[in-house]
Amino acid sequence: MQILKEIAKEKKIFNSLKEIRDEIKKRAPEYKIPNVKRIIRLMIKLGAKLKTKTKKIKEELKFCPICEVPFKSLKEKNLFGKEIIMFYFCPICKFKTKDKKEVPIRYKIVFD
Ligand SMILES: [Zn+2]
């Protein structure tokens, strides 16, 4: 995905996926634009950090909605020495959710 590499090198912050898509269109109009998940996964492979705005859903997620891998959880001990789950996160894209009932609706992609 050469074109994404070039884009990522020149521009460090993308406030939305639309910005990335527009950039691809501008540089290579003939290019077939990959779907949302694919763009994000490729950007993460290139070292991007992902910031998401989420919305609530009813069903609990089984997998990361972007990478489709199982969540890991961060546990901490409370005052009584009991382990509690602070949040769940995706080991690949680091998407975080408190209760697995949130899905990303907007993405900000940052290289630092
Ligand atoms: Zn993920």
In short:
This protein has 112 residues and is of the alpha+beta class. The chain is built from three helices and six strands; from the N terminus they run H-E-H-H-E-E-E-E-E. The strands form two sheets. It has a three-stranded antiparallel beta sheet. The chain has a three-stranded antiparallel beta sheet with strand order 3-4-5, with no helix packed on it.
Please give a handful of descriptors for the protein shown:
3 helices; 27% helix; 112 residues; alpha+beta; 3-stranded antiparallel sheet; binds zinc ion
What is the ordering of alpha helices and beta strands?
Answer: HEHHEEEEE
Radius of gyration equals: 16 Å
Helicity, as a percent range: 25-40%
- What composes the largest sheet? 3 strands, antiparallel
Mean pLDDT: 93
- Gap from first CA to last CA: 20 Å
Cofactors, ions, other ligands: zinc ion
Low-pLDDT runs? none
Strand residue percentage: 25-35%
> Major sheet: order of its strands?
1-6-2
Structural class comes to: alpha+beta
Structure description:
This protein is α+β, with helices and mostly antiparallel strands and 112 residues long. The protein has one domain. It is built from three helices and six strands. The chain has helices at residues 2-10, 17-27, 36-45; strands at residues 13-14, 49-56, 72-77, 83-89, 96-97, 102-110. It has a three-stranded antiparallel beta sheet. A three-stranded antiparallel beta sheet has the order 3-4-5, with no helix packed on it. A hairpin with a 5-residue loop joins β3 (72-77) and β4. The radius of gyration is 16 Å and the shape is elongated. The two termini are 20 Å apart. The model has no long low-confidence stretch (mean pLDDT 93). The protein binds zinc ion. Zinc ion (ZN) binds at residues 64, 66-67, 90, 92-93, 95.
